# Entry
Amino acid sequence: MPDRGYAFTKVIGLLIVGFSVWLIGLSQIVTVSRLAVLIAIAILAFVSWIAAGKDYKEIWSTTKANLSLIISIELLYITIFCGMALLRASIPDISHTEQPMDLMFLSSVVASEHFPPIDSWLSGEHVSYYYLGYVFVGSITLLTGIETWVAYNLGLAMFAAMTAVTAFGLTYNLVLLCRGSRESGIFAGITTVFLALLASNLVGVLELFRASGGGDSNFWSSIAIAGLTQSEPSNNWFPTDSAWWWWRASRAIPGAITEFPAFSFLLGDMHPHLMSLAFLLLATSLSIQIYLQQGLLHLSAFKSLWPLLLITSISLGSLIVTNLWDFPVALALIASSILLNAARNERRLQLGKAIVMNENSLLISSTTGPQNNSPMPCVRIFNFSEKGWKFNQKLTAEELGTHSGFGDALAISESLIAVGCSEASKTGIVRVYKKSKEKWIHNATLRPSQNSKATKFGCSVSADSGVIAVGSEEKVYLFNETEKGWVIFESFSIETNNSEQAVKVSVHNNYLAVGLTTPSSGVLRIYRMARTRWSLSQQFSSSEMGIRQLGGSIAMNDDHVVVAGIGSVAVLKKQKTNWVVS
# Structure
């Protein structure tokens, strides 16, 4: 997920704590009390610590990189929570429709020593209902010690706020996965929150039209909604013919209940279908993550994917006890995403993640998958002979693991092969191979400088005459081979504020081409070696060249630079020390 799942952290946290309290209550080892909630919080902290592993620095850097998004999500949560709390403060009584029953369920959960909770209205019996949603609210009630009627109203505010941030996160991630900008993702997310929590069905529009005195008897009879039989002008902008005029929107179809979230939160019944909204959206988000996840069906990936499996299992299981009617929908989404993930990986051409060649050799990197003979990513080397291309060797790096990005980028020169591993060792690495007795042997590992905060180092590599150029999201590094090995002899920052950029590099003789692409634009920069320093010689932009995402692919030789974007390729020809479009 582009936001790394931050929008879903509150729902997941409440899910694990509430689910743990429920299991503790069922075990009857510890009474359902503040102690049980503290144990559940400790379980959440322990699971989070294990899942984080040694990635604290990466988590911290991701947090800093997405700080504005995190603040936006927190402000959204606070705004919706406070807004709903103010609404409940204006009508705090719990006295109509099915509110007394809902309060009874919550009170029973809080008062029971073990689960299933006692039924306060039927002595000697247990609650026979979907009660896990009440356990979520009851856990916070036990932890804080507030009265259940206060917890009831604050619980409605909490569920509204959690539904809002989960809906926002789901839409935001979908927009960015479709290569939209952050701004468009935020706008779409806020629009989704409005549609999910505030928008009515069309009955709301008809009510306002009726209150303004619009429509004749024929028009209202054609609408065929109970209670809307004629125009009813109001002295206010809203209907005043009944204190419950807004109820009609929930009965738009005769003989059916047509509730929607805005109506449910306004009514104030703490029903399972209201409490499960955020958790159903969480299951939807998990199905997207499952579809996108690489190596999902490989046993070797369980070590890194067990948190996803755990959260998915708990999410599905909890829906059965929160609102059973949402479970088939969530199960269908999760099962479909698993099948689509398998089909997606099966269809994908496993060969060709990166390709590079010279006069005698062809290198093709492979991802993991059913069409790859190895469970690990690898690089296949083919040699050219009179009979054509013949397989020679396969390079792997099993010590780096399945998700190292081994083979994300490839480069070959007369005497070496460079393999980019942009997901390895947090920052990324580049493995250098040299030929020995007709076989390529791992010779060195290139890393960014110790003090740099590089990410995706090795996402692009290029090699020429003892020089290796390596791209990362923040810098371009140039390595030179010395008697002591490979050393960084120059690096320069990529001055851009876009965190979604992709970097491509190509080095040849005294020139270095760097492509920087974002979802909406691109830049090609050409550097020239002057004496002992590299300096920027020329720069071409997407708007100047008329090519979207200019710099997505680059190739260079003595006289030409070929640069590609979306749907177009430009060829630059060398004229003295400058490059011009040919």
The chain has a mean pLDDT of 88. Residues 200-259 form one domain. Residues 547 and 565 are 6 Å apart (CA to CA). The two ends are 41 Å apart (CA to CA).
